[in-house]
Amino acid sequence: MKKITLLFIVSLFAIQLFAQTAILQPVAPEKVGMSATRLKQIDKHLQNYIDKQWVAGAVGVVARNGKIVYYNNLGYSNIENKAVMRKDDIFHIMSMTKPIVSLAVMMLYEENRLMLDEPVSNYIPEFKNLQVLDSINMKDSSFVATPTRKSLTIRHLLSHTSGIGYSFVHANMRAIYAKAGVPDVAAGVRGSKVKMAEKMKILATMPLMHQPGEKWTYGLNTDMLGYLVEVISGQSLAEFVEQRILKPLTMNDTHFGLPKEKESRLTTVYYENEKGALSPYKKEDANFLIEGGRTYFSGGSGLVSTAMDYLKFAQMLLNGGELNGVRLVSRKTVDVMITNQIGGLFINGSGDKFGLGFSVPEASGYKGVGAANGYGWGGAFTTNFWFDKKEGIAAVLMTQIAPTSHGDVVDKFKIAVYQALND
After folding, report:
1. How many domains are contained in the chain?
2. Is the domain of 323 the same as that of 387?
3. Is residue 15 classed as helix, strand or coil in its secondary structure?
4. pLDDT (tens digit, 9 = 90+) per residue, 44-85?
5. Which long-range contacts (CB under 8 A, 24 or more apart) does 319-324 make?
6. Residues 152 and 219 occupy one common structural domain
């Protein structure tokens, strides 16, 4: 009887200890050095943008030291139907897909199934004889190119220094990609049965914008990485990401191609029209990632997700590759991912560097509150995440608008988070 009583006491203690230490549980902000009063500044900021109809709605979530200190939903997921935004509403996260797929590559790296400085052609032979663009005839999309001086490597793809661009960003590549039928996102293959392998093999025949490693050029690098994952793993990218990343992290609302039963939770995508007001995308355009994403698994922009799901991913990175006892990669691998991989190059006017999958801040280039500590990335429809190892912060903001002249909603969200530090 004494043994049973002792076992009960030990079990009860273990349950209480777990409750105290479980990651991503809500707590009073003051318990982790943040002010509940000052965190209300986040609501004021987001509501201001909603009231001015600069964004339709938003979901924001912030954790410190593994505890949730802010989690709120404001505005509408659909203005026209007066559908109130919910915390579990689902967003097109676009380029926030990139860090997840980059992690998939690093998982294969840990398993010695690839090396970062190996030529991509070791796995995708079509990449063996690459060329660099010299000039293009915009009338017929013909071009002149010269051979690369060195091999394109997996590290080049992870750090966006390969020379592979985006047609929507780089006008001189628009005609070339369009003629070859290579889409920037799954929109280009909506409702079809086209597979990533087909388009990535075509991309290998397109000229690079510059010699590998010489510049930072945002582009279809992570789409190519997604195909690389398929080649090495023998699984589709969707299968690998779901089995190896999403399920272990219980990111149950993150998908390539949203399941039919969850489509009612998908937020409406808006754009800023010529009058500066919000207009919804046409239905066939708003769902382009849903239809195309069912077969064309875009490693650069194909996922949909929720704020809480993505916070789990951010917290895992902040923890050094582990969440709630589940380890995806070692902390040393995360250290490599958050280390500057582009040397003296920059990715924007703020002086950011780039690691393997997301931005790495250059502290000397920042003058804003807290900005020099956070690693992260955003999506084209104004979604964003970051994690800050120094302050123990992981945060996600989800809105759904592009193009917009009010993208500073993200930077002001970050200011509102950091000004609430109270320790």
Report:
1. 2
2. yes
3. helix
4. 999 999 999 999 999 999 999 999 999 999 999 999 999 999
5. 319/23, 319/66, 323/23, 323/24, 323/249, 324/22, 324/23, 324/24
6. yes
